[in-house]
Amino acid sequence: MKDKFRIICALLGWATILGQYIVLLSEGTYGGVAGTSLAYFGFFTVTTNILVALAFSVPLLKLDTRIGRFFERQSVRAAIALYILVVAIVYYGLLAKDHNPEGISALMNVGLHFVMPVLYLLDWAVIAAKDKIAFKSAPYWTLYPIAYGVFNLVRGHMTGFYPYPFLDISKIGIGAVSLNMLGFALFYGIGALAFIFLGRVLSKG
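RESULT FIELD:
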């Protein structure tokens, strides 16, 4: 049953990621393949959904490799749960009011920001092992979002493209962006502790 659920989720995840990319490419919003790829795969939503799709897919392959063991680690699966939860919260809390996709794009959008977060959080809460996550691992959970933020600041400086308004130095300034990044880092740190605690509670239930 666990494998069947993850197969369905993996297929939905990859289909949604690829589908939204094709839609964006067909719309030509960011130019051709190069421009679209640079923009699309620079969104935190997309990179995090790729992590989710990998987390659903890799364990099914039963790989005794570094990447196989990585995605089987309890702390990694829990961290991805936090990341995809933030994707949903930030989108529906801050961005959705100014984003109105239509047609197939709207369907893909729901998949990326709602369906996949719900499915992965369900998988983590009900299926994934989470009884051995150490609190000392919490600081490492901030590395991915911090690296993402720094990469996009560098890319934005070079190209002028910022995927999110709260990271747009050209509009709100370096000071505000720095505060936003610090706030997110603190949020992820606190979120990591909360998820580790929740994982231990759920494991005892």
